[in-house]
Amino acid sequence: MVTRTFLAHPEAVYAIPPRLDDGAAHVTGLSCPDCGGVLKVETEGRDAVLVFECRIGHTFDVPELLAGKEERLEEHLWAANTLLEELAELLTDLTQENGHGEPTAAIRAFRERAGRAKGNAAALRVVIRESRPVDLAPADPGKSAWGDPRAGGVAPGAGPTDP
User: Fold this and answer.
1) Do 153 and 48 meet the contact criterion of CB atoms below 8 Å apart?
2) What residues of the chain score a pLDDT lower than 70?
3) DSSP category for residue 35
4) What is the rounded CA–CA span in Å between residue 70 and residue 24?
5) Is residue 162 part of a domain?
6) Range of the structural domain that residue 113 is part of
7) Is the same domain home to 14 and 90?
8) pLDDT at 142 (0 to 100)
9) Do residues 96 and 120 both lie within one domain?
10) What is the pTM of this model?
């Protein structure tokens, strides 16, 4: 049984805090794509561009953060796919007939788990193939679409609108 401990209610943690207009940096519910540390966010400049920074100094604007998250996601999905395929191969090799007649309970369990692992790997490959990053090109070239909404930019969690 897995026990989870929450320091705060998950509903109370925002990827981007709702109020960023006080000039202070705010802790986010996001991790740094480079080191896994907690990110803080603040607005910078007249356009109130969102800038994220981790404790050790990795800094990202919105397009850089999204690109970093997309890259890490793809890396982790491929790692999970590799683990599933290797597990399936290992279990399959362990089920090779040993010449003792009926398969043992362990061999039957290995075959069943190998089949599930192969199915999971195939499903994950579909997820990887269908996963497409968001188009980060601004609607107006030369102008960032990623400022704070109170300064006329885009709301956190929203991107440029599709034409």
Assistant:
1) yes
2) 1-12, 98-100, 137-163
3) T
4) 27
5) no
6) 69-130
7) no
8) 58
9) yes
10) 0.71
